[in-house]
Amino acid sequence: MPRLDQALSIADLRAIAQRKLPRSVFEFIDGGAEDELTLADNRAAFERLRIVPRVLVDVSAPQLATDIVGTPSAAPFVVAPMGSCALGWPGADIAIARAAAAHGIPYTLSTMSTTSLERMADAVQGALWFQLYVLRDRAFNAQLVQRAWAAGYGTLVVTVDLPAGGKRERDLRNGVSIPLRMTPRHLWEGLTHPGWAWRMARGGRPEFENVRGLLGDTSAGLTIAAKVGQNLDAAYGWDDLQALRASWPGRLLVKGVEHADDAERLLGLGVDGLWVSNHGGRQLDGALASADALAGIAARLRGRLPLLVDSGVRRGVDALKARMLGAQAVAVGRAALFGACAGGEAGAHRAIAILLAELRLSMQLAGIAALQQAAPGDLVQHRNVARN
Length: 388
Known about the structure:
By secondary structure, the protein is α/β, with parallel strands linked by helices. It has helices at residues 10-20, 23-30, 37-48, 92-103, 117-123, 138-150, 169-173, 184-191, 194-203, 222-230, 238-247, 260-269, 290-301, 316-325, 334-366, and strands at residues 49-51, 66-68, 71-73, 77-79, 107-109, 128-133, 155-159, 251-257, 273-276, 307-309, 329-332, 379-381. It is globular. 49% of the residues are buried.
């Protein structure tokens, strides 16, 4: 197993994380829904794309800086919202956010993070966005939104592809449930991963601080997490989103969009950007790969609304391909979390640094001196990807 400073790719960091984590925890992070068809196709969709390089271009100093839905960023990357990160490394939320801030890219805090939005705002001096899961308790939703604005989060990301939790069979087979019920298998996994067990004991039980008080529950442990899962709002609709748009004074992004008709309608609703996503393959198995959905939405909107895309991003060149498809930036979830699980804040730094270095090199080799020069005509599809 390579040391952290020897990791050359996100795949290397994933391998380190896999060795350090109990199987059930690693597969909770790594896995998808049902047969994981969408999980696999998310990666394959980026791999099918091929860049046609340009030559005789001055690429001695590639310009990675860009604007992401009104937020200046050092590169076309955003850290995606992730819940329960502390299961992989105590304090992983803050570790990843600090790494993102150090590299000059935005970080998105999940409703189901184990760090409160106020504590995150105090701990990290960087661009912070807040992601909202919509719950049946509308008053609680409104309270979360008000807290985010008061804490200085200028961008709200509302997730709309979670009317119910996906069927994640790896978790079911591994006995991962909420609330968690410890089994002899879980105890054995802890004993055989003493470094992880020691860190967990030292870090204390993770608490979902943002949802304390939901349905009168003043705890913030796994019991409240179970209540969140049971109270997702499957009836949340267009009128509800329009009301949120009217009440939120900052930038509003809608995450979980894949259909071009929905994108067109959201444009008319006055949102500030769309986040093309299938939840990392963790919701509907058989959903379209995010990169493929991005191409269709970008063709329909023709630049009328900023786009982001996530799911399957593992290389810096993926950000360049996404720009050619019409996105302002890509969002990374597992890639950053693998780094944190491999080595805390230093591992998160390593993950982001790898992606930035790969993007810089890809731009040089593709003959692109600045992101604004990335053109759709320099990208082609290869439907059959052969691997040696």
